[in-house]
C-alpha cells in the first residue's frame, strides 16, 4: 500500500515544479516565442511541457518504458533541469528589476515593449551558452595534485602515491566512455593505491553496460590494490549489495565499516555511508569501534563519502580523510549552499594533525553539466616521517 505521506509530498513537489516551469514558459512566450512566425500556443505549450516534464515522467515510468525511450527521456529531462535552473535565475532577476522600475518609472513603457523580443533573445542565448559550456566542462576533468606529509613512520615506506576518484555516478547519463577516460588517466599516473570515495554508481546500475564497465575496472593497476566505499546513491537506488558484489568481481574491494593493514606500513579504513541508516535502518559503526585493534603508530587513511562531523576522525587520530559527495556545488551558485553545509566542501583542510581532501567528483548527478567548478581526479603524494 502506498504511504499517503509520500503521495502528499510528491503532489506538493509536482505542483511546485509545474508552477516554476509554467512561470518560465509564460515568460518565454511573452518575451520571445510569441514573436516567432507560425508558432502558435497550440504548438508551443505541448512542446514546452514535453521537455519540462520528461525527466519526471521517465523516472516514474521506468518499468513501463522501453530502455531506449527511458534513457532518451531521462537525458533530455536532465538537460532541461539545467536550462530550467538558469532560466529561473535570469528571469527572476529581470522580473525583480521590472518590479523596481514599476515604482521608479525609469524606463518608458514604449521602450520596454520594443525591448521585449531583444531581451528575450539575449536571455535565451545566454542560458544556452551557460548550459553548453557546462556540458563541455563536465566532460573535461582535470588532475589536481596534492603533496602531503604525515608525521608517522610507515615501516620501510618513505612515500605513498594515491589516486582518489569520487562521484562517478555511472548509470543512465554517465556512461562507460567516461569511465574509460578515467581509467586511462589513472593508469598513466602510475599510483601505488587507487581509491573510490563513494557514488561509483548512480541509482540505476542496470543502465550501465555491465560487462564493459567491469572490464574497465579490471584494467586499473596499483601495487597496493584498488578499494572503494559506498556513497549515498548506492543506497538511494537500493543497490548497495549489488554494487559491492559487482565491484568485487571487477577487482575493487569495498570497505564497509572495516579496515585493512597494507604492507605492514599503513592502515586504510572505509566507513559505510551515513545514508545506510536512513535507507536500511542500519546505523553505521562508530569510528571509535572501527579503530579498535588499529595500531595508531602507523599512518591511518580513512575513506568516508560525506565530509561531515570532522571532529570525530580528528579526535580518533585519523591522519588523512578522503571524501566526495559535495560536487563542489556542481551548478553555480549552489556552491554557496555547500559552503554553508560543510566545513570543507572542496579541496584541502588541516586541523592539527588531521588532514582532509574533498573531491569535486568525476561525474555528475542529474544535469550532466558543471558550472563554477571542474570535475577532477585527485592525485596525492604522501611523505612519511623517517
From TrEMBL:
Keyword Transmembrane helix applies: yes
GO MF annotation terms: hydrolase activity
Top-level division of the source organism's lineage: Bacteria
Keywords for this protein: Membrane, Transmembrane, Transmembrane helix
Database matches in PANTHER family: TRANSMEMBRANE PROTEIN WITH METALLOPHOSPHOESTERASE DOMAIN (PTHR31302:SF0), TRANSMEMBRANE PROTEIN WITH METALLOPHOSPHOESTERASE DOMAIN-RELATED (PTHR31302)
Pfam families: Metallophos
Ranges that cross the membrane: 6-24, 31-57, 77-97, 118-136
Leader peptide range in chain numbering: none
Identification of the protein by name: Phosphoesterase
Amino acid at each position: 500500500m502506498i504511504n499517503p505521506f509520500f503521495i502528499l509530498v510528491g503532489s506538493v513537489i509536482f505542483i511546485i515544479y509545474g508552477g516554476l516551469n509554467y512561470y518560465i514558459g509564460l515568460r518565454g512566450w511573452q518575451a520571445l516565442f510569441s514573436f516567432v512566425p507560425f508558432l502558435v500556443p497550440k504548438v508551443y505549450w505541448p512542446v514546452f511541457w514535453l521537455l519540462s516534464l520528461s525527466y519526471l515522467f521517465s523516472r516514474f515510468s521506468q518499468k513501463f518504458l522501453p530502455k531506449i525511450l527511458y534513457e532518451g527521456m531521462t537525458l533530455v529531462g536532465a538537460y532541461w533541469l539545467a536550462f530550467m535552473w538558469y532560466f529561473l535565475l535570469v528571469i527572476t532577476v529581470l522580473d525583480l528589476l521590472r518590479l523596481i522600475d514599476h515604482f521608479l518609472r525609469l524606463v518608458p513603457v514604449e521602450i520596454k515593449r520594443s525591448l521585449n523580443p531583444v531581451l528575450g533573445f539575449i536571455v535565451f542565448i545566454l542560458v544556452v551558452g551557460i548550459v553548453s559550456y557546462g556540458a563541455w566542462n563536465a566532460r573535461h576533468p582535470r588532475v589536481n595534485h596534492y603533496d602531503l606529509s604525515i608525521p608517522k613512520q610507515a615501516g620501510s615506506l618513505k612515500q605513498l602515491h594515491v589516486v582518489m576518484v569520487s562521484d562517478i555516478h555511472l548509470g543512465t547519463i554517465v556512461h562507460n566512455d567516461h569511465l574509460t577516460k578515467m581509467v586511462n588517466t589513472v593508469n598513466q599516473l602510475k599510483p601505488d593505491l587507487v581509491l573510490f570515495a563513494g557514488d561509483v554508481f548512480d541509482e540505476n546500475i542496470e543502465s550501465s553496460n555491465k560487462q564493459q564497465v567491469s572490464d574497465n575496472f579490471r584494467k586499473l593497476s596499483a601495487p597496493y590494490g584498488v578499494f572503494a566505499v559506498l556513497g549515498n546513491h548506492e543506497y538511494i537506488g537500493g543497490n548497495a549489495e549489488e554494487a559491492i558484489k559487482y565491484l568485487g568481481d571487477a577487482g575493487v574491494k569495498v570497505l564497509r565499516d572495516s579496515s585493512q593493514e597494507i604492507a605492514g606500513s599503513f592502515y586504510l579504513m572505509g566507513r559505510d555511508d551515513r545514508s545506510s541508516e536512513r535507507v536500511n535502518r542500519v546505523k553505521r559503526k562508530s569510528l571509535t569501534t572501527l579503530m579498535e585493534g588499529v595500531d595508531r603508530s602507523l599512518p591511518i587513511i580513512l575513506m568516508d563519502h560525506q565530509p561531515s562531523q570532522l571532529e570525530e576522525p580528528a579526535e580518533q587520530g585519523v591522519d588523512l580523510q578522503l571524501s566526495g559527495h559535495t560536487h563542489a556545488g556542481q551548478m553555480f551558485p549552489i556552491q554557496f549552499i555547500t559552503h554553508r553545509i560543510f566545513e570543507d566542501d572542496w579541496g584541502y583542510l588541516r586541523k592539527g594533525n588531521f588532514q582532509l581532501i574533498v573531491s569535486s567528483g568525476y561525474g555528475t548527478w542529474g544535469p550532466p553539466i558543471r558550472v563554477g567548478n571542474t570535475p577532477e581526479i585527485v592525485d596525492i603524494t604522501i611523505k612519511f616521517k623517517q
